[in-house]
Design a protein that fits this description.
Length: about 675
């Protein structure tokens, strides 16, 4: 559907672009902080896209079929804030005046959930374009799933601005390569090719033939567009949109030659305008050079009227709503399912069926790896979760992220499981884009040690409060012969300290299923599941324990009048239980606390935490990971059985004794603490 607007006169277009430039200049100058160069350089591109092509409704930023816009070069945030204000979003001028100030809606980099109209949090370069790939993928999948020949309810584009920094970051290769392979033709990227980064002219460190690179990915490339010629930009976007309608259409890269800081007489084209205020004298010179006579933060009435997109946005959504109501009449079940999915609500059957699923899983007596327990849980949960979209970074057979009757997604092929290839970082950021778009709950797998590759995207999911699930298998030295390069030691503790990320390390089948349920039910952040390669025995053998597992930590076993607590997680919970049995035979009463998710446990009321881990009982923690994390639970006088070095290449059965992570080590630690307590009391 065409939404192209009648172009403004060249003079009006120039003034509309200059409104962006001066809002950016004035906001950065007032804050004495920010990046005016990109907004000034991309203002003409922004005017053409936002005023003539972008289909959006400022009154309803969450309209399901809006075009998505991603500012991947997020340091140029004032470009986006100016556009949101000018087009009619709930971002008043007072917020632009408070740019980069405490509690304003105009943070240094755009933040989703803070500023109306911001689709994703950007700043770490390259992740925005990867998010955009995820959004375009979600659009294509939803269109294939819900559209009907006579009625199209999912039909929008994903636009992204990106700069040299995004191009240099390796994640752009991962994501854009996959976008070309999957032929995401409604993805249109506009490259701000100004040749400047913070250190200066980029030819000293960035000489890639970018158009050739993207052609090699399978993109449609429009090179050498004058980024200050609105007519040329308009033609390029129209060509990209036409490409998107072809059966063999490709994603499009529009290479826009621009001058950073365009309009600044003395700083344009230099790195001086990249990340610093212009200064009062240069601001005045810029005003004069642009012929901008309005006072700071004032927009001439005719320019403001030309920018306002409320009426046409409401009309566009109104047309779509009429079409959707026809769709609802013909396909009521599909319409209800689409609305449910876009609202992020789960089927009522999900919670209703969980008790039965937990009963089935708890009844299994066989010893299995928790990666296999995860797949077993997926087999039972997936039929209740049509919004599931899984995948793996070329490790499906090891991560076991596929499930019964899942369909492999591919080029122009709908599916609910994707082979991402060896692209851990790209996968994580693409999943963020899928989650941000709505309609799917994305999850993806790799080995836990490779979470280092995707860590910043995991952090961004936590910052953005996105429901994304990371499946990390081969979670410890227990993976064995692959050795220290693949054996995780510091990874689980370090992931646990990312705010708003729930890290689950389950001990058996039931704990794994509960972890999956909690991750899916969670609306306000991502989850990570750290799963074993080696087989583990059933420990949580009653479905009613699920309610306790949900609290992150719970009493798995205890003798009356315990003298000490053993805290364990994941594969080491088995060792804790064996130590418990030996200590019981010796007459030392203990309690075993299984702690599958410390993050969830820490959110429990203090009364619950104290009931599970009494402050007056000495504690021993055991985990095949770096020990320092557990000091918060055992205290300075407690003991941690862990590993503070890298692993070794050997069978798992040899590694645990080699590193002293044994039943006997736990028993000795408990004995010592009990003796010390007795001596102190004597």
């Amino acid at each position: 559907m065409s939404v192209m607007q009648t172009p403004p006169t060249p003079e009006l277009a120039r003034r509309m672009a200059n409104a962006i430039r001066m809002l950016a200049v004035d906001a950065v100058e007032q804050a004495k902080s920010g990046h005016p160069g990109a907004p000034m350089g991309m203002a003409d591109i922004a005017e053409v896209l936002w005023n003539r092509h972008l289909r959006h409704n400022p009154v309803n930023p969450q309209w399901a079929d809006r075009d998505r816009f991603v500012l991947s070069n997020g340091h140029g945030s004032m470009l986006l804030y100016a556009l949101l204000h000018l087009t009619g979003y709930d971002l008043p001028m007072e917020e632009l005046k408070r740019f980069r100030q405490l509690h304003s809606k105009t943070a240094g980099h755009p933040e989703v959930g803070v500023t109306p109209g911001v689709e994703t949090t950007t700043g770490p370069l390259g992740q925005g374009i990867a998010n955009a790939v995820g959004m375009a993928l979600a659009e294509k999948l939803l269109a294939a799933e819900f559209n009907r020949d006579e009625l199209t309810i999912v039909d929008h584009h994903t636009y992204t601005f990106l700069g040299d920094g995004c191009m240099m970051e390796g994640i752009s290769h991962e994501a854009c390569s996959l976008a070309g392979t999957l032929r995401l033709s409604k993805l249109i990227a506009l490259y701000d090719d100004n040749g400047i980064s913070i250190d200066g002219h980029v030819e000293g460190w960035f000489t890639d033939d970018t158009p050739a690179r993207f052609r090699a990915y399978g993109w449609h490339v429009i090179p050498d567009v004058d980024g200050h010629d609105p007519a040329a930009i308009d033609r390029a976007i129209a060509q990209a949109r036409a490409q998107a309608q072809r059966p063999d259409g490709k994603p499009t890269l529009i290479c826009c030659k621009t001058v950073i800081g365009q309009g600044s007489p003395n700083k344009a084209g230099t790195h001086d305008v990249h990340g610093a205020a212009l200064g009062a004298a240069e601001v005045a010179a810029t005003r004069e050079a642009l012929g901008w006579t309005a006072a700071p933060f004032e927009i001439p009435a005719d320019v403001a009227q030309a920018w306002n997109a409320v009426a046409r946005g409401q009309a566009a959504q109104g047309q779509w709503q009429l079409r959707f109501e026809r769709y609802r009449t013909l396909y009521p079940a599909e319409a209800a399912e689409f609305e449910r999915r876009m609202q992020g609500e789960l089927l009522p059957e999900f919670s209703a069926r969980l008790p039965q699923i937990f009963e089935t899983i708890a009844a299994r007596t066989d010893a299995i790896a928790t990666r296999k327990a995860s797949q077993n849980a997926l087999d039972l949960l997936a039929p209740l979760l049509p919004e599931f979209f899984g995948g793996s970074a070329d490790l499906t057979g090891s991560n076991l992220t596929n499930f019964k009757n899942c369909t492999l997604a591919g080029r122009d092929v709908w599916g609910n499981h994707l082979s991402y290839g060896v692209r851990e970082f790209g996968m994580a950021a693409i999943m963020n884009g899928i989650g941000l778009h709505g309609g799917y709950i994305p999850y993806g797998g790799t080995f836990l040690t490779f979470s280092d590759y995707s860590r910043n995207a995991i952090r961004m999911a936590a910052l953005m409060k996105q429901r994304v699930v990371h499946v990390f298998t081969h979670d410890s030295i227990g993976l064995g012969e692959d050795g220290p390069t693949h054996q995780s030691v510091e990874h689980v503790p370090s992931l646990r300290i990312i705010p708003n990320l729930d890290v689950w390390r389950p001990a058996d089948g039931l704990e794994t299923a509960v972890a999956w349920a909690c991750a899916v039910e969670r609306h306000d952040g991502p989850s990570a599941l750290a799963l074993s390669r080696q087989n583990l025995p059933r420990l949580a053998d009653r479905a009613e324990l699920a309610a306790h597992i949900r609290r992150g930590g719970y009493i798995l076993a205890e003798q009356d009048g315990p003298e000490a607590v053993i805290i364990a997680t994941g594969s080491e919970t088995m060792l804790a239980m064996q130590a418990y049995e030996q200590l019981t035979k010796e007459g030392i009463a203990t309690r075993v606390v299984s702690m599958p998710c410390t993050n969830v446990f820490d959110r429990q009321p203090p009364s619950y935490q104290d009931a599970v881990l009494p402050l007056d009982l000495p504690a021993v923690a055991v985990e095949a990971a770096h020990p320092d994390f557990w000091r918060k639970y055992v205290g300075r006088r407690g003991h941690v059985v862990g590993i503070a070095s890298f692993g070794e290449s050997a069978p798992a059965k040899d590694l645990y004794p080699h590193f002293g992570i044994t039943v006997q080590a736990i028993v000795q630690a408990v004995r010592g603490l009990v003796r010390e307590r007795a001596a102190a009391a004597a």
